[in-house]
Structures are given as structure tokens and as C-alpha cells.
Amino acid sequence: MREGVRKSNLHFATKGETKLVYICDNCRFLFERQGEVLQCPDCGSGHIRPAVEPEITEYNNRRQSEEQ
Ligand SMILES: [Zn+2]
Questions:
Q1: Residue ranges of the domains in the chain?
Q2: Cα-to-centroid distance, 15 and ligand 1 (Å)
Q3: pLDDT tens, 1-60?
Q4: Closest CA to 36 of 53, 16, 50, 52
Q5: What kind of fold does domain 20-67 have according to CATH?
């Protein structure tokens, strides 16, 4: 069962908006999204779940090292 494809998820880094970090259980890809996520942006798998604390920390560390 699939919903229609929503293409209105534009990527704005708005202050104050709550973003969640998700992880793909298939490929371990970590990414940040607002709202519900149905598919992994990396491998397309539907095995997505909200990341837990150590994974969020890892994600933030990775982002910081990429920005420098
Ligand atoms: Zn994936």
C-alpha cells in the first residue's frame, strides 16, 4: 500500500522547525527529515525508523566533520 508521491518536501533549513534523524535499517544511511519518511533516500528501502541516541550523535559528528 503506497501513498501518492509527494514532491512538496522542499529542503529549507528553517530555524525552530523540529527535524528528526532517521536511519535506514537496510543500508544504515542516516539522514534528517521533517515529518514522516517512507523511503530511504539512499537505497529506496522502506525500512526506515527514527534514529536512537547513539545514532543521532554519530550523525551530528559526521555532519560537523563534513562542514569543516
Ligand atoms: Zn537505505
A1: 20-67
A2: 27
A3: 666 655 555 555 555 667 889 999 999 999 999 888 899 999 999 999 999 999 999 999
A4: 50
A5: Rubrerythrin, domain 2 (2.20.28)
How much distance in Å is there from the Cα of 46 to the middle of ligand 1?
8
Query: Are the C-beta atoms of 30 and 58 separated by less than 8 Å?
Result: yes
Q: How far is CA 6 from CA 3, 29, 37, 41, 57, in A?
A: 8, 21, 11, 14, 29
Residue 32 CA to ligand 1 center (angstroms) comes to 13
- Sheet with 20-24, edge to edge strand ranges: 30-33, 20-24, 48-50
